[in-house]
Write a structure and sequence with these properties.
Number of domains: 1
CATH architecture: Up-down Bundle
Shape: elongated
Radius of gyration: 21 Å
Helix content: over 70%
Number of helices: 4
Distance between the termini: 65 Å
Structural class: mainly alpha
Order of helices and strands: HHHH
CATH superfamily: Fumarate reductase/succinate dehydrogenase, transmembrane subunit
CATH topology: 3 helical TM bundles of succinate and fumarate reductases
Length: about 130
């Protein structure tokens, strides 16, 4: 049944009203990094398939993966992997109804953001 008073009700506040919160930004970034990891996985699978195909095709794939652009993609993929992992741990904590208070949830968000950066730098130092 149609609502006849629809034009008289105020619209709900939207993005132009609300200030982004750390928990909402980290949630959105978790989705973005998950999709970015799919792209990185396709790139790695392409590199492995090229390695099994032959030296000529592998040279093309390896040249791309080891180029400056490939290095940036792999570095950002490493950060996305750490970020996505820590955000998953944060969600496991929340699924157990722990640390749901606003201040503790925000603290977990900062742990995810800062921790992913620290773990990425440590991984690059160790793997270099």
């Amino acid at each position: 049944m149609a609502d006849v008073n629809r034009g008289k009700r105020p619209l709900s506040p939207h993005l132009q009203i609300y200030r982004p919160q750390l928990t909402s930004v980290t949630s959105i970034l978790t989705r973005i990094t998950g999709n970015a990891l799919i792209v990185a996985s396709v790139l790695i699978v392409w590199w492995l398939l090229a390695a099994s195909t032959g030296p000529g095709y592998f040279a093309v794939a390896d040249g791309f993966v080891t180029s400056w652009f490939g290095d940036i993609v792999m570095f950002l993929s490493l950060w996305a992997l750490w970020y996505h992992t820590l955000a998953g741990v944060r969600h496991l904590i929340w699924d157990n109804a722990k640390m749901l208070e606003i201040d503790r949830a925000e603290m977990l968000g900062w742990i995810v953001v800062i921790g992913s950066g620290v773990l990425t730098v440590l991984s690059v130092i160790i793997l270099w």
